[in-house]
Specification:
313 residues, Rhopdopsin 7-helix transmembrane proteins, 3-stranded mixed β-sheet, 12 helices, 74% helix, disordered C terminus, olfactory receptor activity, transducer, GPCR_Rhodpsn_7TM, Olfactory receptor, membrane
Length: 313
């Protein structure tokens, strides 16, 4: 009963990226451009993979389609609210809206981490066991792996919400960020949150670190295998691996920095947050398409292939 009485905060105030009105107008235009690029780029990849059967039947492009869908959804969790706040003097979010944002942010973020790990395994099988690749990475296994990624993200996110929702909040209610996330919200609880912080670090921080190490280990084995066994076609495989490693670094490094440490504020926290929620979803389509001849060819065919989508015909 005492905890319920203490939890009298009904909304949080988001301090955002800047308090200067002129700078906020500039940031609004900049991030509006980023958001349009995110939506169009990732939607283009999803449509391209779905329209071309040979891409959809390929495990790598099947996973890439899901990755683009996650990036598209992930950007919608934070960017629209940020754009709205740039044009308002009062930047607030309800308590339930804050929890909803945390849930989808961690649900989609964890699902993406698991999916990138699966994509690394896919490349490992393709390069280290090419003769049995299609047998091992059959459509049924790919479907189950994707479902496991979504389920893993759901479980991770629910654990975050369960820990946060039990905390009492009695003021202040200012979040030094442009969206709700666990580190900032926990700091506002009017109780000792040491145990909760340790649980959060174990949940989010270790998840990011373990997945990142697994990915690095997988690509290290791939590079060793290429160097010792294969000579022909190395450039194409190295290009694919370089694309994956670039995406992995852009996603995991900010997450490890934010979550694998005590919840204290640093001046660069917002920069890493922008990288994770905006820059990475925007760069992923560019990274995968500019370095991938198959995707570029398939996208060019969209313009001349008769279909029922006016924008693509």
């Amino acid at each position: 009963m005492k905890k319920e009485q203490d939890s009298n905060v009904t909304e949080f105030v988001l301090l955002g990226l800047s308090s200067s009105w002129e700078l906020q107008l500039f940031l609004f235009l900049l991030f509006l451009f980023f958001y349009i690029a995110i939506v169009l780029g990732n939607l283009l990849i999803v449509v391209t993979v779905q329209v071309h059967a040979h891409l959809l039947q390929s495990p790598m492009y099947y996973f890439l389609g899901h990755l683009s869908f996650i990036d598209l959804c992930l950007s919608c969790v934070t960017v629209p609210k940020m754009l709205e706040d740039f044009l308002q003097q009062s930047k607030s979010i309800s308590f339930s809206g804050c929890l909803t944002q945390i849930y989808f942010l961690h649900f989609l973020g964890a699902s993406e981490m698991f999916l990138l790990t699966v994509m690394a395994y896919d490349r490992y099988v393709a390069i280290c066991n090419p003769l049995r690749y299609l047998t091992i990475m059959n459509p049924q296994l790919c479907l189950w792996l994707v479902l496991a990624c979504w389920c893993g993200g759901f479980i991770h996110s629910i654990m975050q919400i369960i820990l946060v929702i039990q905390l009492p909040f009695c003021g202040p209610n200012e979040l030094d960020n442009f969206y709700c996330d666990v580190p900032q919200v926990i700091k506002l609880a009017c109780m000792d949150t040491y145990v909760v912080e340790v649980l959060m670090i174990a949940n989010s921080g270790l998840l990011s670190l373990v997945c990142f190490l697994v990915l690095l280990f997988s690509y290290a084995i791939i590079l060793i295998t290429l160097r010792t066994h294969f000579r022909q076609g190395q450039n194409k495989v190295l290009s694919t691996c370089a694309s994956h490693l670039t995406v992995v670094s852009l996603i995991f490094m900010p997450c490890i920095f934010i979550y694998l440490r005590p919840f204290c504020s640093f001046s660069v926290d917002k920069i890493f947050s922008v990288f994770y929620t905006v820059i990475t979803p925007m760069l992923n389509p560019l990274i995968y398409t500019l370095r991938n001849a198959d995707m570029k060819t398939a996208m060019k065919k969209l313009r001349i292939k008769p279909c029922g989508i006016p924008l693509l015909c």
